Amino acid sequence: MSSNLEYLDDGKFDEDTLTNRLNKKNKSGGMKRRYYPSNIPQTLICNAATGVLYPYRVGTHEQSLLYKIVDTTGTCDGNGFLIKKRKHRGAKTDDEEEEQSELPNPNTNHLFFDSPEQCMAHMRVVISPTDVARWHEGARCHEGARPATV
Which of 69, 80, 112, 142 is 20 to 30 A (C-alpha) from 120? Predict the structure, then answer.
């Protein structure tokens, strides 16, 4: 199910706002992991907010028990760490090219959450009430099929 993310009036995503929002640092000043993606088929799914493993595998029918979003912004690497923004300067020297990182990440990141509410709280996005209600209605059909996380 898709979410209604925050976009500019022209329909484009505000990359600077997202980069600033995701650019959290830990106490030691290093970059903090933004989320825990589950990108590799047939591996255990990881809760994107907590890093705790679920007893379900990526690509199986059981993954439908969880709330899934796909991050297509390209601002995080395949491990969920924020990619530093490229520095745009005039003429590039060899040193400057080495400092630049690959932004955007050309690969998507698949994120799984316990619920849309956990997703909204962690990702700081707004998901439409209609989508939230639809997910909960489907989750009721699976009630009792969801064991605790590993």
Answer: 142
- 27-43 pLDDT per residue, tens: 444 567 999 999 999 99
CA atoms in the 13 A half-sphere facing the CB of 61: 2
- CA gap 125, 135 in Å, rounded: 16
Q: Is 60 a domain residue?
A: yes
Residue 37 lies in a domain: yes
What is the extent of the structural domain holding 65? 15-73+109-141
User: Is the model's pTM score more than 0.90?
Assistant: no
Give tens-digit pLDDT for 40-74.
999 999 999 999 999 999 999 999 999 999 999 99
How many other CB atoms are found less than 10 A from the CB of residue 56?
A: 21
- Which ranges in 8-93 belong to alpha helices (H)? 15-22
Q: How many structural domains compose the chain? A: 1
